[in-house]
Here is the input.
Amino acid sequence: METPSPLPFHVDLCVILSESRRIIKAHSCHFLALSILFLLPVSFSVSVFPVIYQLVYQSSTPTIETHLGFLNTFQQQPPVFPTKVLIFTHLYNLFTLIFSIFAAGSITYSVFHGFYGRPVKLVSAIKSAFTSFFRLVATSLVSELIISGFLTILGLVLFSLIKATQLLGFQVDISSPYFISLCMVFLIIFFCILVYLQVNWAVAYVVVVVESSWGLEPLKRSKILVKGMKWVAFSMLLFYWFFGGIFGWVSSVGWDEAAGGKWKSWTFVMHIVSTSSLLMMIMLSYLAASTVFYIYSKAIHGELPGEAAQEFEREYVSLPFDDDDGKVAHVV
Here is the structure.
């Protein structure tokens, strides 16, 4: 078997984060405007959602038996969920989905063009957000259907095991440690499948915006581009999940205050402002890093056009980013 030729340059998480930071810094006002338009509504809604949810739901708080009641075969009444909570949750999901897709379309477009030193205009970025909106929605639906398919298969397997155990004459106690352990095993399997899919789809939405594809095609295209760089994609996933976890912990600090009626205090307001800003920066960094990762993946697979590919082969790329004085070239 022929030994593959070594990569012309080394790409890791630090290189991608450094490059994305340079692009954002070179066009700081542009990305700040896009973040305020599309990312800030998402980050603010994520920060205040648990608080508002508690305020809406506190009049009818369900017990653990209500949530697990569907596991009880002999339960006569189905679990009841307040209509207000369902409406509020659906509106929240729709709101965050719309603005997240707008953010992905606009910021991806800007980072991609900024990487090559092309003019980055706010109007063009907003136009890209609208033109790629339905393609991103379609691709998101396809990915959710695939994930739901795996979850359904695992659920059917678990249900079959439970029914087979009952047919053999054994009783199934949902509170027993054996049943809980079995559920945990299935959850771990599903989590591993989810991580595998997320790694392979690391640049799927970038493909949608840059290559104007949609549906299953960008998912397949992303898997091809990520090939050979899955550890980099996995490290990116862990990196942003880690900071997402920190955000969740920081954000949860103010939930008790809101539940205690202190949501009108200045302390709680400042807490919401700080957590919203933190999440906005995390999402902006993630979108920029994913786009840079897409460009490097194309370079490794020899798909960069013309002069850009020749630059990568010489182990550096000189890009015409301007500093504050507009005279310093950017070198990778």
Q: What stands out?
A: The longest strand covers residues 318-319. The beta strands are 318-319, 330-331. The radius of gyration is 24 Å. Residues 1-8, 60-80, 314-332 have pLDDT under 50 and may be disordered.
